[in-house]
Specification:
Elements (H helix, E strand, L loop, with lengths): L1 E5 L3 H10 L5 E6 L11 E4 L5 H10 L2 E4 L6 H8 L3 E2 L3 H8 L1 H10 L7 E4 L2 H11 L3 E5 L9 E4 L5 H7 L5 E5 L5 E9 L5 E3 L2 E7 L2 E8 L5 H14 L4 E10 L2 E8 L9 H4 L4 H9 L12 E8 L5 H5 L4 E5 L9 E9 L2 H18 L3
Parallel strand pairs: 1-2, 1-4, 2-3, 4-5
Antiparallel strand pairs: 6-9, 7-8, 7-9, 10-11, 10-12, 10-14, 12-13, 13-16, 14-15, 16-18, 17-18
Length: 364
């Protein structure tokens, strides 16, 4: 079985690492010559829209997937005409545009923050008279890890924030006074079988995820499953899908969804019976889905910009280091570590040790 992956970054790398024990081979299409997944399969080097490379990818693979949602939707549509592509091009197209995404949430009766589409400074100024401050201005496309976003605290921020977007179509969202940020990861295979992982409680800084902690038996689990199920069914979805949510006093508001394996699910590698990466492969290959049951208490810490000493990380009991083979750079995710414990108290101690190490090298 050969799986094609659009993109060859750390998510593709972890998919390939999960697939190797299953006897799956991989072909990556990526424009970078030194992508971190290249060593784990064949690398087609070139632009995602290169017709010759796309034809080769379609011809040589049983199914194609993608590791991030900024792959052009028309590329997925082209491939879907020649081979199986999961998740579907429709899911990719909806997730790529924040306005389409918010409209889709509305159709499915999934609550979102109040928002408005804006395409000029005048439109933005007018929208703020209704939304009020604070708010967040975001580009409709190409935004991730805090990129293409500005916080609006007063009218004085509008002109600079709009100029930073350089005139691209945008959306402005009312600030949500949330109690916490959570996400739920769900998996659906070709046959329609669905499984859910326990909620992840997430801590961000500067728009980048820092820590995710598995919250088994969380009171918001059922509500989160209800919302993500609506997405899965409406999109006839195949693969892993992550839905990011805000909790406000006992109810949930959707932020965005990712049609792919997700950073907040990295704890599943050591912290669940079946990782999100293996289950993604099982789903797109229409294999039985693996159990999502947690193994102990688990959490994940991202290393942003730089790396602590390996021995310092591995000196923490039940910590597992995952290097991405990426050179350090300001604001760049270069590795993560998971940690697992028998009880919440012990997890808290070891997680604090990991976050202290991460903060020492975080240059973002």
């Amino acid at each position: 079985m050969i799986v094609g992956i659009l993109g060859a970054g750390q998510l593709a790398r972890m998919i390939a690492l999960a697939g190797t024990p299953l006897g799956v081979d991989f072909i990556f299409l990526d424009p970078s010559v030194d992508s971190c997944a290249n060593k784990l399969g064949q690398h087609l080097h070139g632009d995602y829209s290169d017709p010759a490379l796309l034809a080769q990818l379609a011809e040589c693979t049983n199914v194609v997937t993608y590791e991030f949602e900024n792959v052009p939707a028309e590329v997925a549509e082209f491939l879907a005409a020649h081979t199986q592509v999961y998740p579907s091009p429709k899911a990719l197209a909806v997730a790529q545009d924040r306005l389409s995404e918010k409209s889709f949430f509305f159709e499915l009766d999934i609550p979102t923050p109040a928002y408005a589409a804006v395409d000029s400074l005048d439109n933005l100024t007018l929208a703020m008279t209704t939304l009020g401050y604070p708010a967040i201005l975001k580009s409709r496309t190409q935004g991730y890890d805090g990129k293409g976003q500005s916080v609006l605290k007063s009218e004085d921020d509008l002109k600079l924030a709009w100029e930073l977007l350089q005139g691209v179509p945008a959306i402005v969202e009312a600030f949500v006074p949330f109690n916490r940020e959570i996400s739920i990861i769900a998996v659906r295979n070709v046959s329609g079988e669905i499984v859910f992982y326990p909620i992840s409680e997430n801590l961000h800084r500067g728009g980048i995820l820092r820590v995710s902690t598995c919250r088994e038996h969380d009171p918001m689990q059922q509500q989160a499953e209800t919302y993500v199920s609506r997405l899965l069914e409406a999109l006839d979805y195949v693969g892993v899908l992550a839905l990011e949510l805000f909790e406000l006093d006992g109810h949930l508001v959707a932020n965005e969804f990712a049609p792919r394996v997700h950073n907040s699910g990295h704890w599943t590698i050591e912290g669940a019976e079946t990782s999100q990466f293996e289950n993604h492969l099982r789903a797109i290959l229409d294999l039985p889905l693996g159990a999502t049951t947690p193994v102990g208490k688990s959490a994940m810490v991202n290393f942003i910009g730089g790396l602590p000493k390996t021995e310092d990380i591995l000196n923490i009991p039940k910590a597992h280091l995952h290097l991405y083979d990426k050179s350090p750079r300001k604001g760049r995710k270069v590795a993560h570590a998971t940690v697992r414990a028998e009880n919440t108290e012990q997890l808290s101690v070891w997680l604090q040790q990991l976050t202290t190490l991460a903060d020492q090298v975080d240059d973002s």
